[in-house]
Design brief:
It comes from Phytophthora fragariae. The protein has 217 residues and is mostly helical. Helices cover 73% and strands 0% of the residues. The longest helix is centred in the first third of the chain and has 15 residues.
Length: 217
């Protein structure tokens, strides 16, 4: 109950912030309060999402990082996702994927991964151009970032059109490389990385049959 009261206070601080420092402190506190579904739903119900989306677009570097972190936490609660998408979170999240900040990219990818669980949200991600930068992160990101990118792409790969787009973006060579030489986090162990099995089925059964020999070698 105390934490729920704290959420209301911090959201009010965010909405009434008059300086860069006040805004940064408020969004940081908000992210740290999003520790479970109850807290996350309260953050959404208190009307914070439009302000978080605005910070993704026009905030300072720190504010963008904390806004993305907070959205990553609150999108983990399924009940929040439709509201977050309605408030326009997907376009600025996708726009931030091309940045060079590892911490920001990780929060963004994890938030987008949480939004890949329904057809409507996957369709918006595709329309907003999420697949090309995700594939790029699969090639060039850190091991931690690749792990979360695999989850997002793995969920998108449930649709034929998105699989075809991934193939056009040359995702298959990157996936084959991970299957062959990736670290333990990327090995095709169903208990740890089921996303790779989705992709293996995608490669084996749906696209570019000539790559089967590479997977078997």
């Amino acid at each position: 109950m105390v934490r729920l009261g704290a959420v209301a206070v911090v959201v009010m601080l965010l909405l009434r912030a008059k300086s860069v420092e006040q805004t940064t402190n408020a969004v940081r506190m908000l992210g740290r309060l999003a520790i479970d579904d109850t807290q996350s739903k309260q953050i959404t119900q208190q009307g914070s999402i439009p302000y978080l989306v605005a910070l993704l677009k026009t905030g300072t570097g720190d504010q963008k990082c904390w806004a993305a972190f907070t959205l990553r936490k609150v999108t983990a609660c399924e009940a929040n996702r439709d509201e977050i998408v309605r408030e326009g979170a997907i376009p600025p999240l996708v726009a931030l994927l091309r940045g060079l900040n590892e911490e920001l990219n990780t929060s963004v990818v994890r938030a987008l991964g949480n939004l890949t669980t329904t057809d409507a949200h996957r369709a918006e991600l595709s329309r907003e151009g999420a697949i090309p930068p995700l594939v790029e992160l699969l090639r060039k990101g850190s091991d931690e970032l690749k792990k979360h990118t695999l989850r997002a792409l793995g969920n998108l790969a449930t649709d034929d059109a998105y699989r075809a787009q991934m193939a056009q973006e040359k995702a298959i060579p990157a996936l084959i490389s991970l299957l062959r030489t990736g670290g333990e986090a990327h090995k095709p162990n169903a208990a740890r990385t089921p996303e790779l099995w989705k992709y293996r089925l995608f490669i084996d059964c749906k696209v570019l049959d000539e790559n089967n020999q590479l997977l078997q070698s």
